[in-house]
Amino acid sequence: xxxxxxxxxxxxxxxxxxxxxxxxxxxxxxxxxxxxxxxxxxxxxxxxxxxxxxxxxxxxxxxxxxxxxxxxxxxxxxxxxxxxxxxxxxxxxxxxxxxxxxxxxxxxxxxxxxxxxxxxxxxxxxxxxxxxxxxxxxxxxxxxxxxxxxxxxxxxxxxxxxxxxxxxxxxxxxxxxxxxxxxxxxxxxxxxxxxxxxxxxxxxxxxxxxxxxxxxxxxxxxxxxxxxxxxxxxxxxxxxxxxxxxxxxxxxxxxxxxxxxxxxxxxxxxxxxxxxxxxxxxxxxxxxxxxx
Length: 292
Prior knowledge:
The chain has helices at residues 10-17, 34-43, 56-65, 78-88, 103-107, 133-139, 142-151, 157-170, 176-185, 196-207, 209-216, 237-251, 271-276; strands at residues 25-27, 50-53, 72-75, 92-98, 224-234, 259-261, 284-290. Helix 4 (78-88) runs parallel beside helix 11 (209-216), helix 7 (142-151) packs across helix 8 (157-170) and helix 7 packs across helix 10 (196-207). The protein folds into two domains: 10-104 and 210-290, Rossmann fold (3-Layer(aba) Sandwich), CATH 3.40.50.150; 108-208, DNA polymerase, domain 1 (Orthogonal Bundle).
């Protein structure tokens, strides 16, 4: 089948996970199987592996791709899935989480993730949930909008408050282009599109992205086999800070720790990869191993 999404840091992920024949694998954000297909090629263990994604477009694609394999494919957010695995006592040799938005999500205008494509204000990874970007932009108070722009968009306090006020006084907004052009018209010159951080903040709020990460990470050691490896790819400083701090906390007691850090500093994309996959520019990979 055609590759819909180019996986970032693929060779680096394989290097830290070191997949071996017969090992089990859990992909918490499988997307369109870019990383998973390479890992499973090496392990050949479909029966004891699981691919998870909260986007039903992705899981339907994966079911078609692996229809002849005894592979578990789950349409669910990864926190809910991990809770279930903990409850049933299941554990894996390898776990991967790639917290980036997939190319198909960005490129499909009707998903409303990107201001580069005109579409409805949506941004839902799970199309069944009620909260969308439209409700956030048109329904949140000025104070709450300012808070998410500052916290999740990492905008300066004054700029976050000013843009929240402008949006509230000029809403409703219904499309990505409409909102992006409005933000641009109210912004000073910027090297990047002025809407970039505001769209990031709205998307994080809609999908509770940081909250899900924070709730999931402490459960990871419970579903890793002794000697099992976990690799996590982040795409902005908010995610990376959460992962970095968790790995530090889980490994700071030496032999008594749950995890041993495999990457003292984050691994980033090579210049060669950036030439063919510019979206890898902000990607950071961290990995750890469960102590035996």
